Amino acid sequence: MSETTSSQSPEGRDDAILPFAVEPLDVRGRAVRLGPSLDTILRRHGYPDTVARLLGEATALTVLLGSSLKFEGRFQLQTKSDGPVDMVVVDFEAPDRVRATARFDAGRVAAAGPRADTAQLLGHGHLAMTIDQGSVQSRYQGVVALEGQGFEEAAHQYFRQSEQIPTRVRLAVAEQVEGSGEAWRAGGLLMQFLPHSPERARLADLPPGDLPEGHTFLDDSANREDDAWVEAKSLVATIEDHELVDPTVSSERLLYRLFHERGVRVFEAQGVHEACRCSRERVMGMVRNFSAEERRDIVGEDGRIGITCEFCSRHYDLDPAEVEAEIVGGQPA
Fold first, then answer.
1. Looking at residues 220-237, what average pLDDT do you find?
2. Burial zone of 178 (CB within 10 Å; 0-12 exposed, 13-18 middle, 19+ buried)
3. Across 6-26, average pLDDT
């Protein structure tokens, strides 16, 4: 690990997660920059710009959260709501693989207009964050109600109610001119207050108990946030969107700008890339789990079973006879 400087470094590359710590303020966090990996995901589906920005935010948030896993497993962010974008799914497979997809109503997205923000596109519903270590017993899920807020506030709400860790998240997405064309980019920063004393990490709360009418609660010491956390939040609040997506402003340079007076340290960067988990074997296994009637229903007019991955758009062409032979023979898919 090293102290940041204001110059570019290998840690300033795209598609990378940069952990950091500001020890005098008792905060730790991660900054992420997504370039080619995100552009691949969004270009593949040709999403409308507003949907692309929304999915870019969700992808950056998922990478920020999923990269905290200390084991080989999956972190999934999924929304289900009544808005023009009724479903978003982002998978992060530790330590460095991400894929994402969104389902939307093209007419409603168009009616929302080019300035529609994430909150307007999501509407009301819920956001689920799932940690999967490979078995049902080791699966954990936290759910946040979507009530007209965007991904940043939903993340804050999740940490308030589930983890009870003071947390701040900033996300930004933009389509920028790069080289001979345009490319999608996203950036994000997650910062958490993690002092050694649990008393200092306690979130601000309402004064305890109900006061008799006419009385005023004067001592707000239990209701006051820690000064270090207030300072850290104030610094993060100064981040401009362009600082999170500008390729000339690395994560290191941004962290230096925010915290150089306190002394910020960065750790080894972790690369991240777009990669789908689908394969012919996985698809065959999925089809084998269908009932005989369901398998007959998905056979097309050409006598084949055609399945397209919602994440990477790869098309799988299966022979129904081969599927049935594997089921009868009990061969592993």
1. 84
2. middle
3. 77
CA distance 175 to 182: 6
Tell me the Ramachandran region of residue 99: left when phi exceeds 0, alpha when psi lies from -120 to 50, beta otherwise: beta
What does the DSSP assignment read for 206-240?
PPSSPPPTT------GGGPPPHHHHHHHHHHTT--
- Give this prediction's pTM: 0.85
Q: Specify the amino acid at residue 326.
A: E
Tally of CA atoms within 13 A in the half-sphere of 283 that contains its CB: 18
Greater confidence (71 vs 143) lies with: 143
Reported as a pLDDT band with limits 50, 70 and 90, residue 220 is very low
* H or E, element range at 80: strand 74-81
CATH fold for domain 280-329: CBS domain Like (3.90.1280)
pLDDT, average across residues 303-324: 91
14-199+227-274: CATH architecture: 3-Layer(bab) Sandwich (3.55)
Phi-psi region of 204 (alpha: psi -120 to 50; beta: other; left: phi over 0): beta
**Gap between the Cα atoms of 16 and 170, Å rounded:** 16
Q: How far apart are CA 126 and CA 123, in angstroms?
A: 9
| Helix ranges (DSSP H) in 127-268 | 151-158, 198-201, 227-236, 241-245, 251-259
Measured between alpha carbons, how far apart are the two ends of the chain, in Å? 44
**Higher per-residue confidence, 245 vs 181:** 245
Cis bond before residue 95 (omega within 30° of 0): yes
Q: Do domains 14-199+227-274 and 280-329 have the same CATH topology?
A: no
The full set of domain ranges for the chain reads 14-199+227-274, 280-329
Over range 262-281, report the average pLDDT.
Answer: 94
